[in-house]
Amino acid sequence: KDRDMVRKRHEDQGIPFYEVFLDVPVDELKARDPKGQYAKVEAGELKHFTCIDDPYEEPLNAEITLKTHQLQVEDSVNILFRRLERDGILIGAPKVTPPGLPNPDGDLMVDLHVPPEQRDAKMREAETLPKVLLTDIDLNWLQTIGEGWAAPLRGFMREGTLLETLHFNSILVDPFNVTGNKNRLATKTDFDHFPEHPPNQRVSMSIPITLSCTDFTKARIEESQSRDVALVTRMGKTVAILRDVEIYNNRKEEIVTRMFGVIDMDHPYIKNIYMGGDYLIGGEIELLDRIRYNDGLDQWRKTASELVQEFQAKGADTVYAFQTRNPTHSGHAYLMRSAGENLKSKGYQNPVLWLSPLGGWTKEDDVPLDVRVKQHEEVLNAGLTHPGGLDPATTVMAIWPAPMVYAGPTEVQFHAKSRRCAGASYFVVGRDPAGMKGSLNALAHPDDDLYDGDHGRYVLQYSPGIGDMKMLSFVKVMYDITDNVMKVPDDSRPNDFISISGSKMRLLARNGAVPCPPNNIPTDLVAANCVPLGFMVPKGWDYVVDY
Length: 547
Known about the structure:
The protein contains 18 helices and 20 strands. It is globular and about 95 Å long.
């Protein structure tokens, strides 16, 4: 009765209430007895002692139950903290995502599609505005911003936001106007006046998301005296309006050197930057419609908000994201399943895997998106019947729309941040994330890795604005020929394990490798031109070979 009264007082005032039941046998309490009270009860020195000669009414519906006799102290603490984190008690901001999922950066969900009832009027307005042509990469970035993957960004970067991104890999925001800076990202950059009180919250933002234009386009905008412009694809489709535009110099060399930290004029994304116009246009976006590619893959394209809803529908109490730029083999599947089991050991009941193929522009020798997604579909279709399969009941596949920029440690921070904006609390990261080999004209690393393989994971752990997001690191896995499963190698029997690298996988696929005999797997797979049966789901391998 007393507990119910206290609970009601909290509920009446809109204050969360947690009844914590320490469900521990009396014999265990007697054995602990840190204050010697049970000993005094046994000696008759204490009367009316709860659970002994006074009744104890067990809670009927406790929010949290801790069997501390079965848990380490750290385990009990983790259960308490996870519950408080899940319910948004510890974040200091209103919870805008379901329990168990983190708030996006800036604590506000971003979805910049215009309401359906306004679309026709906005389209008519767009026809009257100066036009800015989008490249395919620009369109990828437009989708990334508009669908909430770069929250709290609501448009192409203004000059001040770009400078913060380049110099700090993060930006300052004030989503609840605590310091009077709520609209700073949507305000034209002012180099002469600064706020008396700077914004109070730092969020991760490591990659410049900018829109370039030519002298001709700049002149047309200025001649029109319009504050807004329409964004048009190469196919002539008007897809968005950019409001209150800010045009400033495209300092390409500064952007490249700070963003990449390497000198390689044949780097594919560096070439893209230098091909851009001499000016950048910042402003806020209004998306006039969903960006569709009509390539048979749109069913896997979801906004950040839609993805959060899908995680909720699966009952996720946490989400871990695995980014893919290659077909998924059994080693990847082993890592993903192991990560899920690891999260369960931490007390999560239903961790959900987000299989997150890169969906934007990639360099020409990367495996195309359609091949990867079709192969991933077979991985999900196989389920747990094959060591290379994934359980569709606990897996969500959703394409991530941003382009790759191959900026190594700088870029992987954005990869993690963007997944957090759509509900992920954990991000699986491997060696040399977002890295690539330098071209033959690279200054320091021709035909070699541009970045140290360990730097990306290190930077990610300590990057500004990463918040409470946790990283799950890859471990080296190899193919065990004794049971046709990829796993962490056993040092006591090294001859039973063979290594199948990504480059070897692609070579075998190019050569049309067929399945190896299950009981006679050769150590030289390339010479035998065969692939072990347990390496990849068979139909998935067929897609890779066809490509």
